[in-house]
Amino acid sequence: MELPKAETFQAVRRASVELVAGLSDADMTAQSMPDASPAKWHLAHTTWFFETFILSEFLPDYVCYHEKFKFLFNSYYESVGPQLLRSKRGLITRPSRDEILDYRAYVDKHILSLLKAWPENKTDLHFLLALGLNHEQQHQELLLTDMLHLFAQNPLKPAYKIDKIKPFEKQEMYWLACDNNIYPIGHDGNGFSYDNETPRHEVLLRAFEIASCLITNNEWLGFMGAGGYRNPQFWLSDGWAMLQKENWQQPLYWLQHEGQWYEMTLNGLQVLDLNAPVRHISYFEADAYARWAGVRLPTEFEWEVAMTQHKLEQRQGFDQVWQWTSSPYQAYPGYQIASGAVGEYNGKFMCNQFVLRGSSSATAKNHSRITYRNFFYPHQRWQYTGLRLAR
Amino acid sequence: MELPKAETFQAVRRASVELVAGLSDADMTAQSMPDASPAKWHLAHTTWFFETFILSEFLPDYVCYHEKFKFLFNSYYESVGPQLLRSKRGLITRPSRDEILDYRAYVDKHILSLLKAWPENKTDLHFLLALGLNHEQQHQELLLTDMLHLFAQNPLKPAYKIDKIKPFEKQEMYWLACDNNIYPIGHDGNGFSYDNETPRHEVLLRAFEIASCLITNNEWLGFMGAGGYRNPQFWLSDGWAMLQKENWQQPLYWLQHEGQWYEMTLNGLQVLDLNAPVRHISYFEADAYARWAGVRLPTEFEWEVAMTQHKLEQRQGFDQVWQWTSSPYQAYPGYQIASGAVGEYNGKFMCNQFVLRGSSSATAKNHSRITYRNFFYPHQRWQYTGLRLAR
Amino acid sequence: MELPKAETFQAVRRASVELVAGLSDADMTAQSMPDASPAKWHLAHTTWFFETFILSEFLPDYVCYHEKFKFLFNSYYESVGPQLLRSKRGLITRPSRDEILDYRAYVDKHILSLLKAWPENKTDLHFLLALGLNHEQQHQELLLTDMLHLFAQNPLKPAYKIDKIKPFEKQEMYWLACDNNIYPIGHDGNGFSYDNETPRHEVLLRAFEIASCLITNNEWLGFMGAGGYRNPQFWLSDGWAMLQKENWQQPLYWLQHEGQWYEMTLNGLQVLDLNAPVRHISYFEADAYARWAGVRLPTEFEWEVAMTQHKLEQRQGFDQVWQWTSSPYQAYPGYQIASGAVGEYNGKFMCNQFVLRGSSSATAKNHSRITYRNFFYPHQRWQYTGLRLAR
Amino acid sequence: MELPKAETFQAVRRASVELVAGLSDADMTAQSMPDASPAKWHLAHTTWFFETFILSEFLPDYVCYHEKFKFLFNSYYESVGPQLLRSKRGLITRPSRDEILDYRAYVDKHILSLLKAWPENKTDLHFLLALGLNHEQQHQELLLTDMLHLFAQNPLKPAYKIDKIKPFEKQEMYWLACDNNIYPIGHDGNGFSYDNETPRHEVLLRAFEIASCLITNNEWLGFMGAGGYRNPQFWLSDGWAMLQKENWQQPLYWLQHEGQWYEMTLNGLQVLDLNAPVRHISYFEADAYARWAGVRLPTEFEWEVAMTQHKLEQRQGFDQVWQWTSSPYQAYPGYQIASGAVGEYNGKFMCNQFVLRGSSSATAKNHSRITYRNFFYPHQRWQYTGLRLAR
């Protein structure tokens, strides 16, 4: 892997700031639930990441921007030190938006001067810098999902942005077949990947078929109409308990008004597009849909193999919604947790979560690949999550 | 009671806006706990009060500023309609600070034109307008206590304002005696009062003595040093349970650093002034202190009688801290709840709370009187609350 | 006060055991909620009381029955030592019913031998022994209310006993008047009383009227039919919150089946007797009823004065239901907490509770008097609680 | 599969009753936590299983023992109907122990007469009867673990039984190697298995080694001494959160007294046997131990292959403790949920749980096999759970 270029660094960093162009200091400070973080916190935490793992390690005499930021903007790195309680992030009204931007500029300046002086043959910085940029891109998506969640709580239903919205076209679904075989799974080492995509290894799969399309809002209405949210036989036991506790009756951001279905989006409240992929559903809902339909969700291995073999066009493999797979998030055989604090990046979350594959309309450009493993808890719904069937 | 003058109205309304001069939109939006509200919400809710109870009732053809504000800024008036869940107030990043100020200007303009046109002999507006202004002053104090609570959660310990701080002088305490007698209690009807201060009625009191001074921080340190927070014998059963649950070991905003005690204040973290009245203590703590000291808290009637008889100078009766009394907050004999929605102002809270008398350093000027009854739950600590002993 | 006689002691102690005659070891062990205690625990705790406060203090060389019982059967006496967590009482399946009865016999034997040898002129035992017996009688009532609560949770609706049930007759209500005056309140020192009934003192009351009868089930149905449980205007704010949280729609033990109302009782599920006093209602419900009826609850002083003056026949003053008053449970002027552990009997609960007067059908005979002050939290409903109106 | 013989049926049913020989009605009624059930409930629920799935289906004119038992003793079969809230099982003091035994006798009698009359060539009863017996055996183990949990809450630390205890001998650990290969996994259809052990299918495994022995108490003390419970780096993120919330510092039933470690067991409190396998640990603890030791837990496939190949003697493979594997509990490829209510037996729990292999000292005889998949949530500790390492 090469050392990321200064222009790449600047472009990724700039993209984060562009995301908050239309937001007020208040918008950027509020936290709508413990799972979500304030936009300001995302901007600061990604900066803290570069400061902590790169500048403090590699730049002699580097002086931290602010001693307390170490505590305020550490997410979950126990090896680095204690952290502000996650549920309290929305109370940090100071530093202000402007101070955070100043913090970003300070760290960027030092990173750029470090890059300039870095000897070409010294490679230990390469991975960390790439990791920092990929980390920043992950937070760009989280920033969007978190803003959407925040605005959805507001009875005024504010729009984050105003796009011209193009309706989806109806797609014909067909089944894509893959044979019984031993397949390679995981990243091949060309270019950046997270450690959880490695090591590349072989997996034995039975023959299977996977749907060419994602499940649409229209199909989801069929599930709802058939009592999908009222019949426990379609549901995992934990899912049914959650449905009852939270009174789930439709996807997270749907609401009905005078017989018409709407969806809260980054463009505010919109009439539901029936041909669009359903989104903001939990694993429990995706799984219940598949049982109701008499089929099942694919494993993450089936997904990866099918995408590789069938070269599904962009529209249905990526860029719409993250696709729940039936695979619990686990280490690949031979997986080694990196030493040091960055070892906490992925490995310690390999429990109770499920893998999602693909990418969503909120994913940063150049931040998706066929081996990418996203993961969330099975009850979580605020990400752009949908499903594709298999059998 | 006369109709409040336009200048009075404007002065009170202006005072609220002046309180947020140094605050950002973010500062004004965050909510640090369900008991507290965002500054922006205080500015809007007091405006909603004038709009709902005066403009909508008395100004023909008045057009509401925004339909949704009825829901967003209703505090607890069930008769008016449903309300945003109290714990969600901090998620309302929109309307912005500027929109709220515009809302205030819109309502102020209409109130002033209503006042101008109001016939002198039509008195039904008088009480409601005075109530609205007193209500606004109450929220001015809440705005301060809520900002302090918010900033106290922030590890940066921001200062709300920067005052030159004058240390307190040591006072000599003496006991003020009052005889066994029947005393009049409650407001006599000259000028404004809340309904909970009426009707004026007679109360039979046994002879008692009340302290001339408030308990100081130094005295509180004595209580702490004597194991006051560790010995259940001084505590009400509910208080001891709360102490254990919340791990109380000192007043809410105290913290110790390298042997020195500090207190978080609106001026940021300050060295503890030993001669200042102790503040930010719960009823449970006040009561435990009194038991430890071998005496008791005064009843609200004793307080009112003693203040009347002994004409305690401002400094010890008012303007420092609200003083816990041992009186549960109850209706005076013959109390009638007002009809309509304003009937919900006071009466429905007459349960499980205790009366505080006096006023605090955060109370609006001209907003205290000897018959004033403030009230909070016995576990609450974020107000400027202290104590005076009796026996 | 005289030293209670051995026969009195034996009679009270025997009465407790008779209460459990029809119960299994399992019935006597289960705890249906933290507010309630197992029957076995009541039998043991009352015994522990005699052992701890009398035998250990007055009987030289007394050997405790079992070292661990000190921990298991201490209710809330912090001065005596730590206690089993209240919510865990139902897990103590051992000691068995028989062991508890053996424990009772052991302690009884020692108390009786102590009584025999006690010099007539030594009076320090008198109050403690009388307190122990009154304490036991209080637990006799609690044992019944707790068994009823337990059996009410069981879909089989078991009957604790099988009585021949006599229907109530319809009563005509009239108002009893009392004048404006200074009245003596509290116990006069003849015979036993709890410390919370003292000191006797004078209270100034305005003229008032009090209802001759308790509110009946039939009247309560009128309240329900008028939307009493659906209209917030009748409710204290804390009461309305509780109603919503617990989904209150009728008194605790009522249930409707095919249009007929039933009540779960110690005799199992019974058709609701419309003329019987309503029971198992919270203070919040009693207060809401009174507001709906356009009147109010009496204060505990009004109740005591009216009962004294009008000598209400047993049936309506006592032996039916405890009657909620509007008086918060507070110390009488001059009240002194007893020194030592028995000081924890009453005083530390004088906060957030309301006084009930009279007695109920579950109260032990000879355990009621006109100055008696019972007290519960305003949300509690599992006692035999009802109401009488005043104005 | 053959129809289980009448003698087998009787033996299994008798074994359940023998387990409660030394228990009182109270012991059998209490529920120490929602995860556990009362012994009486276990006896009744297993009986309900035969009644619901066999007698009601196959015995014409069968009359249910008691209509309400359908509700009381249904565990989680939504298709059968609603159930008593799980956390309320301990409140069902009636039916009594004797009534439950009578219920058992009633159902047994009918099953035996059904068996007698069953035509040899009609096979549809075979699996259900075998399932009912295996189900009963599972509950026999649960009854023991639940009694232990209940007695462990009691400060008297009662013993469920009094055995002569034989100390464990020290074992030498060695690594057992298995090659990279494709292995068959799952039940081959000879004899009874649960549906979750099927279909038998092939799995590709990389070469691995597995420990010949279980981790002992002595080794666990090493982990504790090395700060295992204090260092987040060994822990999954969810595990570390749980450790902090529950203040885990040692296995569930360990306690230290005057420097000596004890363990609460079915034989009461016992000095810890250092050579015995550690037990009553969560998945989180097992996983943390493995990370601390620089190795990992085996997958369930590795476990099954290693046991098959190396024919580990009984003592280390079975009959000690259930062994946590790193495999989330998931369906095998091609798994089909059975139709009807028995389909709820296993499939709906395939989420958020981990597979354990082997069997424990509390497992019923003849109730273990190499393909058996037990499963619990990763935080649960009250089963006989331990671990074996792999690498």
SS class of chain A: alpha+beta
Q: What is the CA–CA distance across the termini of chain A?
A: 38 Å
In the sheet with the most strands of chain A, the strands line up as 10-9-8-11
Element-level helix/strand string of chain A: HHHHHEEEEHHEEEHHHEEEE
Tally the beta strands of chain A: 11
The low-confidence parts of chain A are: none
**Tally the helices of chain A: what do you get?**
10
How big is the Rg of chain A? Answer: 22 Å
- Quaternary assembly: homotetramer
How does this structure look, described?
Four copies of one chain form a homotetramer. With 391 residues, chain A is an alpha+beta fold. Chain A has ten helices and eleven strands. Chain A has helices spanning 6-19, 39-58, 69-72, 97-117, 124-153, 217-225, 237-246, 283-292, 300-310, 314-317, and strands at 175-178, 181-185, 201-205, 208-211, 254-257, 260-265, 268-271, 322-328, 354-358, 374-376, 385-386. Chain A has a four-stranded mixed beta sheet with strand order 10-9-8-11. In chain A, a hairpin with a 2-residue loop joins strand 6 (260-265) and strand 7. In chain A, helix 1 packs parallel to helix 5 and helix 2 packs parallel to helix 4. The first copy, chain A, starts with 5 loop residues before the first helix and ends in a 5-residue tail after the last strand. The mean pLDDT of chain A is 96. The interface between A and D is medium-sized, with 34 and 34 residues.
Write the topology of this structure.
The structure is a homotetramer of 391-residue chains.
Chain A: H1 6-19, H2 39-58, H3 69-72, H4 97-117, H5 124-153, E1 175-178, E2 181-185, E3 201-205, E4 208-211, H6 217-225, H7 237-246, E5 254-257, E6 260-265, E7 268-271, H8 283-292, H9 300-310, H10 314-317, E8 322-328, E9 354-358, E10 374-376, E11 385-386
Parallel strand pairs in A: 8-11
Antiparallel strand pairs in A: 1-4, 2-3, 5-6, 6-7, 8-9, 9-10
